[in-house]
Amino acid sequence: MAIGSKQKYTDAQKRKAEHIEDSYEAKGVSHEKAEQIAWATVNKHSGGGERSGSGTTTPETTKEAARKDSAEHAAETRQAKAEPNALEKQSIAALRSKARKKHISGRSTMSKVELILALRQKR
Predict the structure, then answer these.
(1) Is 39 buried (19+), middle (13-18) or exposed (0-12) by CB count in 10 A?
(2) pLDDT of 18-77, one tens digit each?
(3) Cα–Cα distance measured from residue 8 to residue 35, given in angstroms and rounded to the nearest whole number
């Protein structure tokens, strides 16, 4: 089977990818990029092609956990973007924690203002 072949995907997975692709194209994303995003989303949700013979399938609990993590991350992102001064309202410990997650070096010696500026540059 050729690389990039979609034979191992179910009809439902193919339809889902097509709908996702259409919605991204409607937002102005190129066809190639929309297709790439669509299949990546299908793979994230379902663990890849699941017809018989496609290897091991991802357990439903793992898929559910991945969707939950993705939804939580999306909610955090929306909340952070909704409040432009959200960083200023957070404690320095919370800012350092965010800086740690974004691998900002020198964070332990930074002041609150420096942390905020570094976090905004890493977005």
Answers:
(1) buried
(2) 999 999 999 998 999 999 999 888 888 877 766 555 556 677 888 888 888 888 888 888
(3) 17
User: How many angstroms separate the CA atoms of 118 and 104, rounded?
Assistant: 7
Q: What is the DSSP track for 52-72?
A: TTS-PPPPHHHHHHHHHHHHH
Alpha-carbon gap, residue 2 to 89, rounded angstroms: 52
Residues 6 or more apart whose Cβ sits within 8 Å of residue 22: 34
Q: Does the pTM of the predicted model rise above 0.85?
A: no
> With contact defined as beta carbons under 8 Å apart, do 35 and 21 qualify?
yes
Residues contacting 58, CB < 8 A, separation 6+? 46, 47, 48
